[in-house]
Design a protein that fits this description.
The chain is of the alpha/beta class. Helix content is about 35%, strand content about 20%. The protein has helices at about 55-70, 105-120, 140-160, 170-180, 195-205, 230-245, 265-275, 295-300, 310-320, 330-345; strands spanning about 1-10, 20, 30-40, 40-50, 85-90, 125-130, 165, 185, 210, 255, 285-290, 325-330. α5 (about 195-205) links the parallel β8 (about 185) and β9 (about 210). It is globular and about 60 Å long.
């Protein structure tokens, strides 16, 4: 029997003693959804924190552990503090990425765009040299390196304080990126692409984004099969975190990304987004990347990438309400504005 705990956030009332806080945030909860899974049988129930002790011994122990993970303060990662939401601006120096392929694949265009995203409110620039859109084919490590390194160097030279995330699944590319002073690895394969990746992360003590995905970009949208997408993604993270800890990698250096749009149907994406607070019980910061994804277009008259900003912002505001700490987006200015106004409200 496996147990899962999702905090139900609400406004704090005068009953302060009955509330707990999501670590390093201003979100409070006094109720959790407890999910149990025994093979394919799944049960769900809402329970007040004050009634947790009424649970059976094994369930009480596991639920208590997860509530503690939800509430512990999130440690700083690569100078990122998690007391306020952070924006990760997407910079694809590729000819074929799904939304901006070919727009920024020269050094002049990529560095100018990075400067604009920083001005617009980006805390992190996520640089990718290989498209991982559905149907994309793998390119060589050397080609990927030749695309990203000049841009990384120029951005770092112009703005030493900006945090650079390297979007790659190849250990050879990770190694060269680290040598050129990147701050975070963003592995869309979730450490599945190569067993060497985890060794590089360990040796260099690199913080990294652990993203859930299945198969590879070329095949990930075919024959999608989960028992329960939310719990299966959770179990994937739990297993990978355990693997990292067995390699003496500090869990506090891991950021979790449920991989919206990577090997999921529209319905499964919506399920993950609606229940994304579940992943806080793993004790790591959560990154959310729904920007311009195809499920938004499918839900609204098959709108193309440039017509999905409204849907992207809607998912950001929902995830913000669920305590997500990092938002990976194409539209930095609009997202920054939406978050600022919503927080004022």
């Amino acid at each position: 029997m496996n147990f899962y705990v999702r905090p139900i956030f609400s406004k704090q009332t005068s009953e302060y003693k009955d509330y707990k806080k999501l670590g390093s945030s201003n979100l409070y909860f006094n109720t959790v959804e407890v999910i149990s899974r025994n093979k394919k049988k799944i049960n769900k129930k809402l329970i007040k924190l004050k009634d947790i002790r009424s649970l059976e011994k094994k369930e009480f122990k596991e639920v208590s552990i997860q509530i503690k993970e939800i509430t512990i303060p999130r440690k700083k990662i690569a100078s990122i503090k998690f007391d306020n939401p952070k924006i990760m601006g997407i910079l694809n120096v590729t000819p074929d990425s799904f939304s901006d392929g070919g727009k920024f694949n020269t050094l002049d265009k990529s560095t100018k765009y990075a400067a604009q995203m920083i001005k617009d409110g980006a805390d992190i620039i996520d640089i990718g040299g290989e498209s991982t859109r559905p149907g994309a084919t793998t390119i060589s490590a050397m080609k990927e390196i030749s695309r990203i390194i000049p841009t990384i160097k120029k951005i770092k030279n112009k703005n030493k304080k900006i945090i650079i995330s390297l979007d790659t699944r190849k250990p050879e590319v990770m190694k060269v990126g680290i040598e050129n002073n990147i701050d975070i690895i963003n592995d869309v394969s979730g450490l599945r692409y190569s067993s060497k990746s985890i060794d590089i992360i360990k040796q260099k003590k690199m913080p990294f984004v652990l993203m859930h995905s299945i198969k590879n970009p070329k095949t990930m949208q075919s024959n999608i099969d989960y028992d329960d997408v939310l719990l299966d993604v959770y179990d994937f993270f739990k297993k990978k975190i355990a693997l990292c800890e067995s390699k003496k990698i500090d869990k506090k250096s891991i950021i979790l990304d449920p991989g919206i749009g990577f090997g999921k149907t529209v319905k499964q994406n919506l399920n993950l987004i609606a229940n994304i607070a579940l992943f806080h019980s793993l004790g790591c910061p959560v990154l959310f990347g729904s920007s311009r994804k195809s499920f938004i277009g499918k839900l609204h008259k098959n709108a193309l990438e440039g017509k999905r900003i409204g849907g992207s912002i809607a998912t950001v505001i929902h995830a913000l309400n669920q305590g997500v700490q990092i938002f990976r987006v194409h539209d930095v200015f609009e997202t920054s504005q939406a978050i600022k106004i919503y927080k004022k409200l």
